[in-house]
Amino acid sequence: MRADRLSHAVESGALVVPDHGRIAIFGPAASQDLTIFPQARVQVITRQRLDHDTFVAAGYDVLPGVTPGAAMALVCASRARVATQALVADAATCLAPDGQLVLDGQKTDGIDTLIRAVAVRATVGAPVIKAHGRLVVVAPGTDFGDWRSVPHIIEGGFVTRPGVFSADAPDPASVVLAEALPPRLGSRVVDLGAGWGYLSRAILARDTVQHLDLVEADGVALDCARENVTDPRVHFHWADALTFKPAAPAHAVICNPPFHTSRAADPALGAAFIRAAQRMLAAEGTLWLVANRHLPYDPVLAGAFREVADIGGTNAYRLIRASRPHRPVKTN
After folding, report:
1. How far, rounded to the nearest angstrom, does the alpha carbon of residue 212 sit from its chain's CA centroid?
2. Phi/psi of residue 53, each to 5°?
3. DSSP 139
4. Which residue blocks in the chain are alpha helix, DSSP H?
5. What does the pLDDT look like over 297-306, one tens digit per residue?
6. Alpha-carbon distance 63 to 51, whole Å?
7. pTM for this predicted structure
8. Which has the closest alpha carbon to 198: 172, 235, 217?
9. What angle do CA 266, 272, 278 make, to 5 degrees?
10. Would the CA dihedral through 72, 94, 63, 276 be positive or negative?
């Protein structure tokens, strides 16, 4: 949809792609078609590992942060309003003095609210309306410095940033899982999809743990985790949980997996986390999992592990212990 809107904006003359200089694109999803822009001059800015890897594989220059002097900066709005505003601040910072700031997004991602907020402090061009979204060009020279992302401290002394999952308080499901972890977890543990490190602190309270792989695909959340978890036993990985491979099989995997893709519930995502944990574990290893009660994980758990047991939980969440993973059949 964004590609259609960008093409329409260029064809109508509402958006003029500069004929020289760098084009910085902030926060595009892996599925985004950027071919309207000359690839050799595009720089993708993202802290999401899957998006990063997809654009790198497609031949794009991809960076986690800004470099100055861009001729154009395109901000791809998301539902995380404050995080999108932080991208606008970064985009404005990276522009050359006469650079062009462009905002684009779906209505369901709050683009109208973003445009109104920008219009209070800057001149905004007429919107290009297409494919259930809007695109606007913002006059150069406006300072959005007060929109930059800043860390804040929440319950328990944890550092988070706007836009990361459960930024305002520990996720209730993770709290339930942390309280249920046994005194002994084995020496090698993986916190899969660790976010900003709440569960990792609980894991490291077990003195049997000698090595903890903290795996998180959101680079901003991982930055927070580095501040929240300073134990020398922890090893940080900016990685896709579904493809991460520990250096040695784990004795335990701890997981509160996501189950949404955009706005839609997607149980297949949580199921993929379960199968990833199966591959990471040692033969006698154990997955400690928390999940919303309505999620249909039983078939995938039964197919991945020899022993599966409910170990409590709440009205909202199941606590599951799954042990002794099945090994895939090798074929010649």
Report:
1. 21
2. -65, -35
3. -
4. 2-12, 49-57, 81-94, 111-119, 172-180, 198-204, 219-228, 267-280, 298-304
5. 999 999 999 9
6. 11
7. 0.92
8. 172
9. 150
10. negative
Let me know: does 189 contact 229? Beta carbons within 8 Å. Answer: no
What CA–CA distances, in Å, run from 252 to 75, 108, 239? 40, 39, 18
Which two tokens mark 155? 């319950």
Q: Locate tokens 């078939």: which residue?
A: 299
Contact between residue 18 and residue 100 where contact means Cβ atoms under 8 Å apart = yes
| CB-based contact 184:169 (threshold 8 Å) | no
If one counts every other C-beta atom within 10 angstroms of the C-beta of residue 16, the result is 11
Q: Which of 131, 142, 331, 151 is nearest to 226 (CA)?
A: 151
pLDDT tens-digit readout, 129-185: 999 999 999 998 899 999 999 999 999 999 999 999 999 999 999 999 999 999 999
- Strand, coil or helix: 232: coil
Instruction: Determine the residue type at 279.
Output: R
